[in-house]
């Protein structure tokens, strides 16, 4: 037996918090009866509907995907552009990305049908490190990049301190390779931080998410994650 809101989240319909709202709003039925109370326990034999649409209680699955550039971090797109789930044609579950990578950013992206885990990993107070490698315009120096370690305010938003490492510089081409480690997930955060330091980003790749890396994966490849890998990832967050 599981709580109704958790089953809805696992089915990929919504996060657990939104599922709770659906229940209290009277949008959920169990075996044909409207349920408005939170904490109701259901089994796999129970028939559950959200907005009169039956849901199927799928087993939770987790994938790590090497997102290529030029692919949208979504499960669908109204303009018919390529989305990350187009690479999962042999996966029957209704998966969706946890967070997003920009259209022209490549690298490690997680996908799941587990709304509960997705909500935990996307919580604004989590502390899961995300490591990016950027090719930037300009010759990077420790002094110029120092502001990222003290927290920055960009577009009216305060950003948590980040860590940086200059991997290489090329005076001839006036470019540098910089590694940046953050634990937030704001839109265009890495690009905005580096640009604010005077280094516009040419290319960007996310190489690590918590303890997970892209080892043995090529762009467009994915692999299923074991439950213990997800548990280790959740251990790195403040919330459990």
Automatic annotation (TrEMBL):
InterPro entries according to UniProt: PsdUridine_s_RsuA/RluB/E/F_cat (IPR042092), PsdUridine_synth_cat_dom_sf (IPR020103), PsdUridine_synth_RsuA/RluA (IPR006145), PsdUridine_synth_RsuA/RluB/E/F (IPR000748), PsdUridine_synth_RsuA/RluB_CS (IPR018496), RsuA_PseudoU_synthase (IPR050343), S4_RNA-bd (IPR002942), S4_RNA-bd_sf (IPR036986)
Record-annotated RNA-binding S4 domain positions: 2-59
Keywords for this protein: Isomerase, RNA-binding
GO biological process: enzyme-directed rRNA pseudouridine synthesis
GO cellular component, one term: cytosol
EC code(s) of this entry: 5.4.99.-
SMART domains given in the database record: S4
GO MF: RNA binding; rRNA pseudouridine synthase activity
CDD domains: PseudoU_synth_RsuA_like, S4
Family note: Belongs to the pseudouridine synthase RsuA family.
Protein name as it appears in the record: Pseudouridine synthase
Species annotation: Tetragenococcus koreensis
Gene name linked to the record: rluB
């Amino acid at each position: 037996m599981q709580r109704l809101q958790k089953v809805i989240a696992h089915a990929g319909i919504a996060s657990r918090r939104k599922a709770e709202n659906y229940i209290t709003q009277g949008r959920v039925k169990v075996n044909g009866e409207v349920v408005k109370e939170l904490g109701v326990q259901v089994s796999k034999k129970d028939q559950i509907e959200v907005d009169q649409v039956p849901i199927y209680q799928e087993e939770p699955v987790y994938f790590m995907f090497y997102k290529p550039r030029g692919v949208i971090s979504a499960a669908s797109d109204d303009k018919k552009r390529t989305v990350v789930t187009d690479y999962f044609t042999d996966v029957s579950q209704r998966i969706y990305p946890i967070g997003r990578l920009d259209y022209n950013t490549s690298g490690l992206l997680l996908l799941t049908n587990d709304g509960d885990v997705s909500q935990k990993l996307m919580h604004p107070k989590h502390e899961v490190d995300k490591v990016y490698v950027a090719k930037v315009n300009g010759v990077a120096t420790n002094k110029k990049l120092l502001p990222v370690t003290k927290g920055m305010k960009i577009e009216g938003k305060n950003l948590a301190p980040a860590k940086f490492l200059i991997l290489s510089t090329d005076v001839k081409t006036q470019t540098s390779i910089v590694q940046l480690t953050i634990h937030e997930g704001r839109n265009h955060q890495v690009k905005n931080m580096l640009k604010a330091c005077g280094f516009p980003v040419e290319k960007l790749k996310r190489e690590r998410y918590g303890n997970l890396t892209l080892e043995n994966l090529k762009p467009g490849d994915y692999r299923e994650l074991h439950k213990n890998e997800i548990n280790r990832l959740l251990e790195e967050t403040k919330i459990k």
